[in-house]
Structures are given as C-alpha cells and as structure tokens.
C-alpha cells in the first residue's frame, strides 16, 4: 500500500543471537503496536550491519559503494522512522554502527524520526547515547525521540525499563504522526545546506550549461 509507513531497524549487533537485535525487536514490537493504535499502517524492515561490514569498510577507504550497501541506503531513504541500535564497546558506540552512517549521503535522513538504542554490559555506559549519538544524529539532521534506550543485563526483566520502551515507541510514533519528516523535506528543503549530487542534484539550482561548468568538464 502506498500509504504504508516504513519503519527501518538498523542493527549493529554482531553476535547470533544478539542482545542488540533483541532490544531492537522489542522496540519494534512496541512501535508497531503504537502505530496500530493510532490507525497508522506500518511495516518493519531490518538492516543487519554484520554482513555489510566489508562493504562499509570499502566505502570508507575507496568511496566505492557496493550494490548491497546501495540497497541499504535506498531502504533508509524511504524510511518514515528508524530504530538505530548499537552495542557499546569501551564506552563508545560500535565502530561498525558509526561507520555505516558515515558512508551515507549527507541529505539521506533529513527530518527522519529516530529512536536511539544501545546495549551495554554495565549501567556505567548509560550516557553513551545521549552524550555521543544524539550529536551525531543531529549532524545527520534527523530528529531523535527524547527517550533513548540503553539496556544492561539487569534491565531485561525490569518493569521500569519496559515502561521506558513504551515511552520511546510512543514518542517515535508521535513524530511520525505529526508529519515532521514530510514538512521538513517539503517546505523547508531548500533552506538546508546540501552537498552537490546528494538527492541526485535535484535540490540544487546550478546551471550545468554555464561557461564555468563547461570549463570544469573539460570544455565540453
């Protein structure tokens, strides 16, 4: 259906089974339930980063994007909301996770609502999302749900953590229902600073037939 919203889950967990994937699935279940409660048709698609690790590294070092990485980019381009989940290693988000978002086009996620989630071995890492990832996703010009999810082993059976998952899912769907992404990309699109060629160049009023541009192309 054309009006079905797309929820995309980015999972940076590398083990199988992965607690990061389990957290993402838990948030996904609540988000889809909240969408149904609001009468919004929504389907979920998952991007697992583990199989893309080699492609992500190649894109960072050679700027060559594989077909698989391009498909992941296209899925994210059409996302109405994202659940981005990463494990925490040594008080920082996974390098695989951050590298994936670093190779994406700068304009790809403008205005997209994002729920940030992380798994850690200790509550000591609970500020990693708010301290590190919010700024990162702000640079990507997304809008993050106020409630983030950071789970350590003792949280899995905690009723308080369950309430936090509920709250995060509600906030994410409120952003979707409010149409923030559509409004930001509609009326406000030209107000953003774009890189040439991002979104296919369609957002730029550049005259490709000018003398300067012909000179840059070798005089043709």
UniProtKB/TrEMBL annotation:
State a single Pfam family of this protein.
FMN_red
The record, for Gene3D superfamilies, names: 3.40.50.360
Q: Which InterPro entries match?
A: CE1759_FMN_reduct, Flavoprotein-like_sf, FMN_Rdtase-like_dom, NAD(P)H-dep_FMN_reductase
NCBIfam families listed in its UniProt record: LLM_duo_CE1759 (TIGR04037)
Which keywords does this chain's UniProt record carry? Flavoprotein, FMN, Oxidoreductase
Superkingdom, taxonomy of origin = Bacteria
Q: Is Thylakoid among this UniProt entry's keywords?
A: no
Q: Give all residue intervals belonging to the NADPH-dependent FMN reductase-like domain.
A: 7-156
**This protein's name:** FMN reductase
The answer on whether this UniProt entry bears the keyword Transmembrane helix reads: no
Instruction: Check the record and name the PANTHER family matching this protein.
Output: FMN REDUCTASE (NADPH)
Q: Which GO terms describe its molecular function?
A: FMN reductase (NADPH) activity
Organism per entry: Leucobacter aridicollis
Source organism phylogeny:
Bacteria, Bacillati, Actinomycetota, Actinomycetes, Micrococcales
Q: What is its EC number?
A: 1.5.1.38
């Amino acid at each position: 259906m054309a009006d079905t919203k797309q929820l995309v889950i980015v999972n940076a967990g590398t083990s199988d089974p992965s607690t990061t994937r389990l957290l993402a699935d838990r948030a996904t279940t609540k988000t889809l339930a909240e969408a149904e409660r609001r009468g919004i048709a929504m389907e979920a698609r998952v991007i697992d980063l583990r199989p893309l690790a080699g492609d992500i590294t190649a894109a960072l070092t050679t700027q060559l994007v594989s077909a698989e990485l391009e498909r992941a980019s296209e899925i994210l381009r059409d996302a109405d909301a994202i659940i981005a989940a990463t494990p925490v290693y040594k008080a920082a988000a996974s390098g695989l996770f951050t590298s994936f978002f670093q190779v994406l086009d700068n304009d790809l996620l403008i205005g997209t609502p994002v729920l940030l989630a992380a798994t850690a071995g200790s509550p000591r890492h609970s500020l990693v999302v708010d301290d590190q990832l919010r700024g990162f996703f702000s640079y990507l010009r997304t809008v993050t749900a106020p409630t983030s999810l950071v789970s350590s082993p003792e949280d899995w059976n905690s009723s308080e953590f369950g309430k936090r998952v509920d709250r995060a899912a509600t906030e994410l769907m409120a952003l979707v229902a409010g149409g923030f992404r559509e409004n930001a990309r509609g009326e406000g699109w030209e107000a953003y600073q774009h890189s040439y060629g991002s979104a296919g160049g369609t957002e730029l009023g550049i005259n490709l037939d000018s003398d300067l541009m012909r000179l840059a192309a070798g005089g043709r």
